[in-house]
Amino acid sequence: QGTPELPSSTNQFGFCSVISADASAVDYSGPVNIAQRANPSGSSFVNDDTLAVVGTLVSFQPGVGEEDPNRYLFQRDISDGKWVALGEANWGPINSLAFSRGNLVWNSVTGLYKSSDGGVSSTRGRSVPGFKAFVHPLNDQYLCIIGPQLQCSSDGGATFRLVTQSTSVTSVVADPRDEGTFYYAVDGLGLAALALQPGARPPAIRTPFEIASRIFSFSALDDGSKTVLYVCGFSRAYRSVDLGVTFQAIETPVAVSQIL
User: Fold this and answer.
1) Is 96 helix (H, G, I), strand (E, B) or coil?
2) What global pTM score does this model have?
3) DSSP alpha helices (H): ranges in the chain?
4) Which 8-state DSSP code applies to residue 7?
5) What is the pLDDT of residues 174-206, one digit of tens each?
6) What is the predicted pLDDT for the residue at 25?
7) Cα dist. 211→36, 50, 184, 186, 238 in Å?
């Protein structure tokens, strides 16, 4: 639908692009226009696909007249497009942010937090040495953290267990249809699955060498009847409709390096 004008990279703080369902409208927005440049550490979408909340790695003043610039969590008012700071100022830089069962969950340098009112108030869990928390969208009791090794919890972060000794885990995604099941990528080894729900067995993934040797990104999507895995490695994209038993290359007009 054409090429919209991009925001200025010199004064737009961590802008995000939100595309309408029919791709007819593109909205570029960011919490604040300032000279200091940085990227949001995480973002999450509400049910109507409008960007609602963003967490940042640096604090800043979201508007003229704000008294406390030490904020890291912001919500976008979809009625006027303005960003407002949420909650407390002592959360610290936010490394990740996710929605799960209507709760907002984020991991910061001061601990793991959960909010049932969109970030206005929150409860703090234990502090874990993780850079990013991956929360299962069907149950926020199931979550994993990378930093530097992969650790997972089945009790909302009260306790964690070490999943692998490898320090080469690059990313984790949740199975959108199977509660408690996650997939993770180990650089040079490929994809693996784990099931946090008691008694559940994870899928046995067989990653071909051309994919395992270098995984740039991957995702797990619900197509309405099953979970489909998408993997990007060495400028090619692949799809698996049988939970990693087989993979098929996806023909693309250009080389790809990331799948969202």
Assistant:
1) strand
2) 0.74
3) 209-212
4) P
5) 999 999 999 999 888 889 999 999 999 999 998
6) 46
7) 38, 33, 13, 11, 8
